[in-house]
């Protein structure tokens, strides 16, 4: 009986390297596929895909498996990066990694892999897929510190049915140990953080290449001007660093935080104190929700949710589901809930799906 062909999305990192190793050990016909998602055009940039593809090629040589490459930079620009820029121009804070999974890794990449004869694709995500009858559940990765189900909340039944997450059942330390034992040079490679196309550059400097600076006022709740900014779109709610506010007459020494952005008037509004009441929201509305099961729950529906990656699960009630929109009321008020980010819903370790945070109250 012919072996089932699995194509692994090799990023040049340790997680995808071990994913390929595990699948080969399990008897699959394994091939690697490296995605070039970003055309580096900025001098001094750190997002060097050339180094990553060299690591991926080295892994495939050691495993004695073929490697393919595909240039998805145009798809990334059109389906992810243009949305990223538009959201910032609208004063929101997008999460391109979620959209990248939806549009690139589990769409454009999946299509290319199936054209190469793959029965399924595999990636190095820390998440799990469980089939229950004819239904596919997306579950949290076993390693709670590395769980990446948040970033996979836009996946569908069809995408999950064709996907595998080999390291989802492992702790990170175990993945590195397997890589070291196999002699992979990626065993101690630093995990990638942040947005790939930004790399190690200061984020504001990167964004200013696409969205020109526009100076404006930083004001308190009563309209007092306490500083100047370079453009409201460079900042996010709850931000403390980079405000340059200090020595305000009549104010105490507590740090300042952004609690609101006025896009039309180009004003940042700030308050003092990490736990100021204006930084908290009890309710949000979400749009463009993807329910992984293919259908929404009956409301009111109690579950837990995250409004940002690595946040602990927060008890909430989902209400007023209509089309792909809903309202979410939290048991406890949430700090710095940010429009443009994703709210992702869970039933214990099952990821139910998620949507884009549109507004708060």
Question: What would you note in describing this structure?
Answer:
The structure is a single chain. It contains 7 helices and 17 strands. The protein has 361 residues and is of the alpha/beta class. It has 3 domains: 5-188, Rossmann fold (3-Layer(aba) Sandwich), CATH 3.40.50; 213-274, Adenine nucleotide alpha hydrolases-like domains (SH3 type barrels); 280-360, Beta Barrel (Elongation Factor Tu (Ef-tu), domain 3). The strands form 3 sheets. A 6-stranded antiparallel beta barrel has the order 12-15-14-13-16-17. It has a 5-stranded parallel sheet with strand order 3-2-1-4-7, sandwiched between helices. α1 (14-25) packs parallel to α2 (49-63), α1 packs across α6 (172-181) and α3 runs antiparallel to α4. It is globular. The chain starts with a strand and ends with a strand.
Secondary-structure element pattern, one letter each: EHEHEHHEEEHEHHEEEEEEEEEE
| Through-space gap between termini | 59 Å
Q: What is the domain tally?
A: 3
Q: Would you give the CATH topology of the largest domain?
A: Rossmann fold
Instruction: Using the CA coordinates, give the radius of gyration.
Output: 22 Å
CATH H-level superfamily title of the largest domain = HUPs
Kindly state the mean pLDDT as a whole number?
92
Query: Based on DSSP secondary structure assignment, what is the total number of beta strands?
Result: 17
Helix and strand content put the structural class at alpha/beta
